[in-house]
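Worked example 2:
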Amino acid sequence: MFDKILIANRGEIALRVLRACKELGISTVAVHSTADADAMHVRLADESVCIGPPPAKDSYLNIPALLTACEITGADAVHPGYGFLAENARFAEILAEHDVHFIGPRPEHIRLMGDKIAAKHAARELGIPTVPGSQGGIGSDEEAHRLAREIGFPVMLKAAAGGGGRGMKVVRAENELASALATARAEAKASFDDDTIYLEKYLDRPRHIEIQVLGDGKGRAIHLGERDCSLQRRHQKVWEEGPSPALNSAARDQICETVAKAMREIKYLGAGTVEFLYEDGKFNFIEMNTRIQVEHPVTEMITDIDLIVEQIRVAAGNDLALAQGDVKFHGHAIECRINAENPVSFRPSPGKIIHYHPPGGLGVRIDSAVYHGYAIPPFYDSLVGKLIVHGKTRSECLMRLKRALDEFVVDGIETTLPLFRALASETEIIDGDYHIHWLEEFLARGALEQ
């Protein structure tokens, strides 16, 4: 096992990793920008190192500074959390060159899945169902027009090198395709320094279903069920739950075992998530995230398996301790991402938290690094914390969620708590009858402004 882990992240995920390390008896190093000097993970870590000024490029993305922090503290491993350098294959390679372990997948798997075209090709080779579309990047406008006519409109343009909605364009008619291609390529170039675009069939009302996997890099891999992440705004997840109310046991078992088998075949190491669009009873692979996900607590609540601990164990060279039969699912869990944003305009709302009272009680978990008097800095994402609730049934879970949301107090800044209070009372949400465009349609109706 590792002696000392440097946590190359901030906020709630840094605190989450720190807690896992402490429970394993591993010493911790917190790194921070000058803006995060008073952060909770910095206060609780065994050691801390300032790695630069507030801009992420000068601190949390500063690889030389992180290497220096490893050297001066003697850290023998780095946990990247999510975001920042978590899916940077070169960072993993550089750490290895300096005899520091990267707690995550092998660089070749990060690189493979980071290229959306290569990932889709690999998925097909592994027997994972994919969305109909181009076999690679689109070389010319003429090729795009030919493919789109073959597949049928509407189609989706996507950046091969990225995600998060950048470079993504829906094209509903052929006369829109040329201008959409130009815009998508420009956005992809600006965001990822790569203007390669691929094309695939646009699904009108799919669910977003993702399968959580764990592997030890030696050919053993298991799945930990699915999460439904269909409630999204601008391609960013807002509400996640598991199991999905849209799947029956047969569909769930088939896709989960297909994914686990693929991970065993490639000898995947660590935690990962294989993501699908699900419509008309068909799963369509869209991407794989080679890291821990923001929404991982949903899986932890319904399996009682600590995903961060398992990440650390297999990264240290241990065999996967769990067989598929050891994974027992129970109950239902929902996670709400509470952001420091205006709940109507979604304008960021950084500032000092004057009053903070998180909910509690049976089946309620808060993953957050904020505290009374903490100032949300304007330099990073606006996540205040994650509210995760668990119940024996989905109905019980929803009632517990409503109760917890009513208890949650965050004063001094605006938050998205009113949005979740509204969602938890919507008939279609209660019935589990929603899709990836539902939330944006709900917001477009001005439901929160009434």
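The chain has a mean pLDDT of 95. The domain at 132-201 is CATH 3.30.1490.20 (Dna Ligase; domain 1).
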